[in-house]
Write a structure and sequence with these properties.
Blueprint (H helix, E strand, L loop, with lengths): L1 E7 L1 E4 L4 E9 L6 E7 L6 E6 L5 E3 L7 E6 L4 E6 L8 E8 L6 E2 L3 E6 L1
Parallel strand pairs: 2-11
Antiparallel strand pairs: 1-3, 3-8, 4-5, 4-9, 5-6, 7-8, 9-10, 9-11
Length: 116
């Protein structure tokens, strides 16, 4: 079983930057997809960015060019750099992990708040 430990997030003014980190703990596979989703109040959870085991990256709408995901397989972790943040980026951000043979795992969520 895999657990996800998140850190980072917080409060920032529009145009600012934040960083999120997520470490997978347990029976971790380098073949797993890892990444981040977010959920704003009253909205559905949506993809921010995710990376496959071979390094292929998929970005959600509106974040490519501002957000950068990096993966460290030696540390079973992913880090997300968020730049040029907008108020519309305000949401709870959830780390995501899914091995090819398993169910998706989610972190507990970390809050990002961007003021105008």
């Amino acid at each position: 079983q895999v657990q996800l430990v998140e850190s980072g997030g917080g409060f920032v003014q529009a145009g600012g930057s934040l960083a999120l980190s997520c470490e997978a703990v347990g029976s971790v596979s380098n073949l797993a997809v890892m990444g981040w989703y977010r959920q704003a109040p009253g909205k559905a959870r949506e993809l921010v960015v995710r990376v496959t085991g071979d390094g292929s990256t998929n970005y959600g709408d509106g974040v490519q060019g501002r957000f950068t995901l990096s993966r460290d397989n030696a540390k079973d972790s992913v880090s997300l750099q968020l730049h040029n943040l907008k108020p519309t980026d305000t949401a709870d951000y959830y780390c995501y992990y899914k091995a090819p043979w398993g169910l998706p795992r989610w972190g507990q969520g970390t809050q990002v708040t961007v003021s105008s």
